[in-house]
Write a structure and sequence with these properties.
It catalyses: Hydrolyzes the link between N-acetylmuramoyl residues and L-amino acid residues in certain cell-wall glycopeptides. The protein is α/β, with parallel strands linked by helices. It has a single domain, classed as 3-Layer(aba) Sandwich (Lysozyme-like), CATH 3.40.80. 31% of the residues lie in helices and 20% in strands. It binds zinc ion.
């Protein structure tokens, strides 16, 4: 499941305004990957992420060199890669989603020199939000660190 399927989104800024990528921000969709696909394809939604994972698939919406609109904070958006996970308040991610997330995060950590133990953060570490909800952030960090 290492290859992401390109979906695209109109919701992004070209480039990163000179910022280097030094964070991965973890999110939950509050729905399935199909819900993320629909939201990120809608220009009126004004939100996106670089990747979404769920139901056995990895989708990409924004190029890593560009700024996606996921963290609710422009400076953090410019310095981070945002990853959405299929889950909701009563449904945590499944094991397949965790495994795909760790694989993707490990590749990003290698490419950008990111330390998984300190530079993979939850959306709620950026702004006040319930996101990433039922996603076990420490599990993603641990599974990623084992691969880097
Ligand atoms: Zn979020």
């Amino acid at each position: 499941m290492s290859m992401a399927l390109w979906k695209g989104s109109p919701n992004f800024n070209t480039g990163r305004n000179g910022s280097s990528v030094d964070r991965i921000v973890i999110h939950y969709i509050v729905g399935t990957l199909a819900a993320a696909d629909a939201t990120f394809a809608d220009p009126n939604a004004q939100v996106s992420a670089h990747y979404g994972i769920g139901e056995g698939a990895v989708h990409q919406y924004v190029n890593e060199m560009d700024t996606s609109w996921h963290a609710g904070d422009l400076a953090m958006n410019r310095r981070s890669i945002g990853i959405e996970h299929s889950a909701d308040q009563s449904r945590p991610p499944d094991a397949t989603t965790y495994a795909a997330s760790a694989e993707l995060c490990a590749r990003i950590c290698r490419d950008f020199g990111i330390d998984p133990n300190t530079q993979i953060i939850g959306h709620s570490d950026v702004v006040s939000t319930a996101c990433p909800g039922t996603v076990d952030l420490q599990r993603i960090i641990s599974e990623t660190a084992a691969l880097v």
